[in-house]
């Protein structure tokens, strides 16, 4: 007989009780020992997240919501339990915690993003050193991403067909497992040690990227009760998103969705409107999948069971609802295989090298890139800033970027529109810069999906039809002739006639005055004539002209055909070509 287990369950991006293989494993360790086993459900407040990652207030709020909801659910199962939020980096906290609480086992759900993997490898080593047994399970994806890669011949999954084939070799997506009915008690939660201040951890910047100091507080919070922090306490700005987090909300949303059998069974992504809001045209479950407040397998099987029983003609992957989840697994597989290089062009064998707004004229004779500027960098920097701030003068782009900033979510085709526009379909700015803005503002930010989709849209990986660009005028009109979406998010144009809503600069000045908004300037000024009129900028460039320049640039870059791991990219000599 072994001594009773003393288990830490480490919650991260699996903030739920339903269908959690890792939590279930933790509980099965405790079960044979009945009341002598103890379970500590903890969250380590990682300085990487607090200081280093780009996390805007909307995603912070979503995370805190999800933690609070989880904590309440733990208490419902056992009044002595709650989520124990501890503020210290896992890499320095765990060795102390193992000793202090006499821990025998550490359990968690595996993570596959670059930072998560490195952090977990380190924690596993520390546990081994302390004689603590580590038990991990996958639970974040339909199939274990490492297994997917293995069955794909050890290669990153770059298409849905590859995912389907590799998935079939692994076997059916596992059915969701049961929600736990009870929890063991926690042990003593005394912390007789000091916090390792985040500043002492190499590589952590004490200030977030927005330059604001964050209060890191005390190990177990200001009241010493391990409570979930508030936004005020963390020194965060107020969230502006209407979308809230937590497993309870996620499961309610899923139930609501599944009531609409026709919608679920016949869902076709390309037919859903990016301009729909309140309600949006797709499920908006992505932030819940990110934080694990919804299990992806729960979502998958609830959908598949409806599809299997459906009397009419159901849609199929890749456009169907389960097809969307396959895309998610595809990007996780690509990320798992490429690990650290996945998020960048540099040293990435799968990512095409495009000399974004840098020399890229081609030499007629040699077919190689020469040193003439496609767009000079200062101009491109302005394009980037105006794109980010939603003042490009293209109302559809600006509406999407403003929705993204204020609400933290935009429709997939809206993401297509703005990502194509910033990169190879307008501004010719590096996709990595756009991905950084998304990383900060999205409530569903998922490294694998964000990076992968930016590569897709910029035609640097996954997709190569760079001559197919979205027009910021025609694409908006296709979905929303009246311009309701633009009027909602660019309210200075709300009274414009629909004839001009996507191209307000074409409206006669008399009409502009009648509708209360003058089209001039670069968007930095919002009022004209002493507040008599509002102002909205003219388009920052001629789109048709820019599209042609971009296509020519892409053509040249493709013909040279460098990838991120090419010697000439790594040592910078591509400039001399
Ligand atoms: P639904 O259409 O209802 O789909 C259901 C689920 O399938 C989604 O919740 C999501 O988990 C998954 N899914 C759908 N489409 C994709 C896709 N193309 N790639 C991967 N998973 C998909 N998705 C993220 O979850 N996080 C990101 O950071 C992210 N960044 C993106 C960046 C760009 C430039 C683009 C073009 C797309 C990005 N996506 C990202 C993918 C997709 O836009 C969102 O998953 C989707 O819009 C979320 O809304 P939904 O839950 O209503 O999707």
Count of strand segments: 10
Low-confidence stretches: 200-211, 368-373
Q: What is the helical fraction, as a range of percent?
A: 40-55%
Bound molecules: flavin-adenine dinucleotide
Strand order of the largest sheet: 3-2-1-4-5
Overall pLDDT confidence: 91
The biggest sheet amounts to: 5 strands, parallel
Number of continuous helical runs: 22
**What class would the helix/strand composition place it in?**
alpha/beta
Judging from the principal axes of the Cα atoms, what is the shape? globular
Gyration radius, in Å: 25 Å
Estimate what percentage of residues fall within beta strands. 5-15%
In whole angstroms, the N-to-C terminal distance is 70 Å
Q: In summary, what is this structure?
A:
This protein is α/β, with parallel strands linked by helices.
How would you characterize the overall build of this protein?
The chain has 577 residues and is α/β, with parallel strands linked by helices. The protein has helices at residues 21-30, 47-52, 57-77, 90-100, 114-129, 145-151, 160-170, 247-259, 261-266, 286-291, 296-309, 321-338, 377-388, 395-407, 412-422, 431-441, 447-457, 474-479, 484-489, 509-514, 543-560, 567-570; strands at 6-10, 38-44, 84-86, 105-109, 133-137, 359-362, 369-373, 517-519, 527-528, 533-536. The longest helix has 21 residues, at 57-77. It is globular and about 80 Å long. 47% of the residues are buried. Mean pLDDT is 91; it is low at 200-211 and 368-373. The structure holds flavin-adenine dinucleotide. The site of flavin-adenine dinucleotide (FAD) has 28 residues, from helix 10, helix 12, helix 15 and helix 17.
